[in-house]
Structure formats: structure tokens, C-alpha cells
Design goal:
The chain has 148 residues and is of the alpha+beta class. It has helices spanning 5-11, 58-76, 122-144; strands at residues 18-22, 25-29, 39-43, 80-84, 98-103. It has a five-stranded antiparallel β-sheet with strand order 1-2-3-5-4, with helices on both faces. β1 (18-22) and β2 (25-29) form a beta hairpin. α2 crosses α3 (122-144). It is globular and about 35 Å long. It starts with a helix and ends with a helix.
Amino acid sequence: MADCVFCGIVAGTVAAFPVASSPSGVAFLDVRPVFKGHVLVVPRPHIVQLTDLPVADLPGYFRFVQLLAAAVPAALGSQGTFIAQNNIVSQSVPHLHTHVVPRTKGDGLRGFFWPRRKYDSDDEATGIADAIGKEYLRLSVTDTGRRE
């Protein structure tokens, strides 16, 4: 879709801090992260919400999300992740996206109030994206025996 920022990121026409790519989707840093290392995962085609994702695409998409949920804490030293999706209500971009947010006990995140932060610099964001991407590649090779 021409006016969708996430479609532009998938196509490479909109700048982003890429984390990982697979046949099922693209992952990149949220530019307004809840915590540094907050990743957004989107399917390649323009799909508005989870209920529109074809059943045949569910395993590949959610395996991609699952690997990133493992890569984020391994790369950043967090204790875990928070995985979330909004469908229509509170969906800031009308393209299906899954939030993979690093979590550490006592980090201050409570309920559904998501305070947003900024990266100190593009270099910091690039370094974080690269670290998560490298861990994702390590995990995907371990999982499949090949790079996706």
C-alpha cells in the first residue's frame, strides 16, 4: 500500500533500523521504544490486523516473532520480553505489527501505560539493531540449519 509507512520499510523506501528479515516478515526497531531494543515485526504484505493474516502464514510469521522474542533478551541482557499486538484500536499504523519489548524485573512497566523513550543517537539504535539481528541469525541457523 503506497501510503503505509510499514510497507515502505518492507520495500526499503522508508528508513528504519533493521533488525532481521525472513520470508515471513521484517523486523526493525520502534523509533519510539518503550525500552531500548523494542522491536516491531511486520508481515511483508499489507495486512491490517491479525484476523486478516492468512492461516497458511501464521506458522512462519509467529516463528519469526518467537525467534526475535528469544534474540532480544539474549542480545541485550534483559530477562525476558513482552509481546503485544493492537488490532484497530490503539493501532498507530494500520499494518499488522507485533511488539517485542525487552523486559527486566523492576523496569517500571505497569499495565497498558507504555512510556516512550528515544535513542540517544542513530549510532546507538544501529548498534542495538545489529546486536539483536546477529542473535536472531544465530538462533535461526540453529533452528533451521540454514540462514533464512
